[in-house]
Amino acid sequence: MEIILELWRFLKSRKKLWLVPILAVMLLVGGLLIFAEGSVLAPFIYTLF
Amino acid sequence: MYILGISAFYHDSAACLINDETIVAAAQEERFTRKKHDDSFPANAIQYCVTQAGIEPENIDAIVFYDKPFMKFERLLETYLAFAPRGFTHFSKVMPIWLKDKLFQKTQILKEIENTFEKNIDWNEKLLFSEHHLSHAASAYYPSPFQRAAVLTLDGVGEWSTTSLALGIENDLKVYKEIHFPHSIGLLYSAFTYYTGFRVNSGEYKVMGLAPYGEPRFYKLIKENLIDIKEDGSFHLNMDYFDYCTGFTMVNENFNKLFGAPPRKPESDLTNREMDIAASIQKVTEEIIVKLAKGIAKETQEENLCMAGGVALNCVANGVLLREGIFKNIWIQPASGDAGGSLGAALAAYHLMYRKPRTAAITQDKMQGSFLGPKFEENEIKTALSALGAHYEKNKFQEIIQITGKALANGKAIGWMQGRMEFGPRSLGARSIIADPRSPYVQKQLNLKVKFRESFRPFAPSIMRDKLNEWFELDVDSPYMLFVADVVKSKCHKMTNEENALFGIDKLNVARSEVPAVTHVDYSARIHTVDKETNPYFYDLLKYFYEITNCPILVNTSFNVRGEPIVCSPADAFRCFMGTELDVLIIDNFVLHKEDQDTNLRNNYEDKYDLD
Predict the structure, then answer these.
(1) Domain residues for B527?
(2) In this complex, do B187 and A6 lie within 8 Å of one another by their Cβ atoms?
(3) Tens of pLDDT along B480-502?
(4) By the 8 A CB rule, do B197 and B256 touch?
(5) How far B494 CA sits from the closest chain A CA (Å)?
(6) Interface residue A29 vs chain B (CB under 8 A)
(7) What is the reported pTM?
(8) Does residue B547 sit within a domain?
(9) Mutate to test the interface with A, among B9, B74, B189 (most CBs of A within 10 A)
(10) How many domains is chain B built from?
(11) CB of B400 within 8 A of CB of B586?
(12) Torsion sign across C-alpha atoms B321, B326, B330, B335
């Protein structure tokens, strides 16, 4: 729960609350992907991700 | 006030501990774990820093992480949005990692700190986060010898920023302009690193070393298609040619079509084409850096420039910048990559958050020659060597100098380990492989038999500071091997017509100066100046070598083989010594000759590490 609060505070301070609905959808899809894959392995490259 | 800076989780994890303004200790995690560019939490480096300071964990007033994970996540989301529906495969691979792991970085850091110190302290209260490029800028400005300076940071990407321009005045440091992802000079260079068949994030140095073999015949093609460079140095990449926003490679099919071929396969033969490509991207990079510097000089009217970020390790571009004379003085952070972010994060918190005053180092910087890593006591060295079954002898330091100097003059390759280890990617005489630069065979032999790396790669000269002008076209200190300059004309050999007509790697076989092992094919050298104050042992060795040979220069390369982190401990040094064609190993006052060692201790070192 704390992470959600922190994310909320972060988006608010960055004036990016418009990202919230997109974030919610992405979290949902991402969550499903985790569920489907079971485990994740860090892919290639750099500091991008 | 003790502040611990940490960089981790992407590449080159490191820790740094400052006591007020003084840098007490700093080290990369890879040196302890023996995993090149190790990205794991730097527990070993932290332990070392705290032990070196002689303090208890509870004495640490703040811990600062070098970048902001949430801001990075924000960039990811907005990038996906900007490119959607393209990049779903990428999204499906990356997002689970964030949701499971990276989004909880704060919790992870707290847990790791608790595990490292095994003490019940409320670290949550003490944990701070600094922005990636502010960390770089702080690592460049605060340890510099300037009271005020313009600051330029350039790298792949942090949170959003890929390039930042800042102004430092006394204890204040403000970033006033940024170029944001995906437009990145670091990523552009990495794209060409990938395309020329080298590994992103470690092969950039090879591209730079390869460039002088080629002609920049793709320069126009790059400028007309890939990048739009403005007069102030700001730039815009044409993302039609790059894949890194939505894919897992740096460039896409359009890029391959533009250059007429797919990327070179790693470890396949290098052709003149790769050399020409390297020369071209190097030229473009130099142009951007010079224009950025001109822009920042015009805007700030400052006479001093500080630089950091991975691109600031491009010493060829730094040399060009120096010769342009845009700034009176240039100082570059020796640990310019992400490892140095740990130092910058700590210093930024000290000066910007706690508003503590800054005293500029008047004559020298505050990096202490970058000798901020572990040192080993005599009994530790003895114990380690005995345990490994090594045969060694102990001598007085003056004898060590003479034994080493004479061996060098007799063509021996020597592993040289003295005092505290360097912080940053360069070996500066504390963990170095050294040799006689006058020999025309040394470069090839060292590359192939000692370093097990590509024969084209150049070696750097270490030179007595007071002899610099006699040998190189450089008149400023270069204690961190971060400036490239030409060998003076009087020391260069005249080429015959046949020699001049050679192409590519064939150029390597021609001795171009009195010190061919450190003279690149374009007569340049990556210079390391050594002075008595910051590097006394190494200076004494150079001086003795000069006395017996009239040459104040030594070949200096990092004490490791390809893919291996630079040696840290006596055991690392001995293993590397026994796995390579090194003839002599010096560890502080101990001398080891290869012929005295038990042949059963020899090991297959060439295949021990993954190729970089």
Answers:
(1) 378-601
(2) no
(3) 999 999 999 999 998 888 888 88
(4) no
(5) 43
(6) yes
(7) 0.94
(8) yes
(9) B74
(10) 1
(11) yes
(12) negative
